[in-house]
Fold:
Amino acid sequence: MTEELLRRTFELRGRDFENAGEKSTEVTSILKELDIDPDVILRVGVVTFEAEMNVVMYADKAILSFILTDDEIAIEVADQGPGIPNIELAMQPGYSTASDEMREMGFGYGMGLPNIKKNSDEFFLESQVGKGTKVYCMIRLNSNG
Amino acid sequence: MKLSEIKDLLKCEVLAGADALETDIDTAVASDAMSVVLASPYPRALLITGLTNIQSVRTAQISFISSILYVRGTRPNDTTVQLARDNKMVLLATDTGMFNSCGLLHNRGIKGVI
Ligand SMILES: Nc1ncnc2c1ncn2[C@@H]1O[C@H](COP(=O)(O)OP(=O)(O)OP(=O)(O)O)[C@@H](O)[C@H]1O
Ligand SMILES: [Mg+2]
Structure:
């Protein structure tokens, strides 16, 4: 039986570049205190940070949920925003609709979603144009991806 | 190579972490694109960048990177420097450009991530 040990939810706001990434560092701080394998924390951090940045860059707002059980970590980011018209295209490394302003901030290289997928043991992306996008990732505590 | 030696070599200003310059560095990642750094994160590497916003520090935090070298005369703002201090990171700033900074460090044996 999988036992839930910890569940946290955070609100994320679109276009809030000043605080972008802060919730992800909170998530990794929690994991560091729990003595989780650093390699797992690194992967959780990358996944959460990239998903958080996508909300800031493209969506209006989102709820980030983080669930730790005794054998895995699940991260779900559900946003209200424009949605993704072509998921297959969005998943391609290098594909990006980011503005020049976002590129000047160090983002918009079309690497976020492929990177999220690469670091997850399970990954789902669901999107409805005009409504929003949901990213779900699961990382096992005892694997290396 | 110690951070203090990097500081002398590139005539850096120390913006944060003056008490941690004895840390040894053998690997570096150089980029202005944070998603590139996150794509091949290398814990304990030196991050060399011209990008000075707060995401440079947050990207380092996520990647277990604890030292950043800002090149070509760029300087992060006070909020960014404070976040780095709160997280016990070392921030160095040099007027030397990206290419020359990397070349000089590579010459002294610092290796790239990939
Ligand atoms: N939450 C989202 N809502 C709407 N569109 C999105 C969302 N996430 C991603 N996209 C779309 O998918 C594209 C690819 O996303 P991805 O994260 O891979 O790259 P990026 O954000 O453009 O750049 P990077 O992640 O390298 O900074 C984005 O440019 C955007 O068009
Ligand atoms: Mg992205």
Notes: Strands of chain A lie at 4-13, 61-69, 72-80, 122-128, 132-140. The interface with chain B takes residues 17-18, 20-22, 24-25, 28, 38, 42, 45-46, 49-50, 53, 105-109, 111-112, 115 of chain A (CB under 8 Å). The longest helix of chain A spans residues 38-58. Residues A 50, 53-54, 112 surround magnesium ion (ligand 2) (CB under 6 Å).
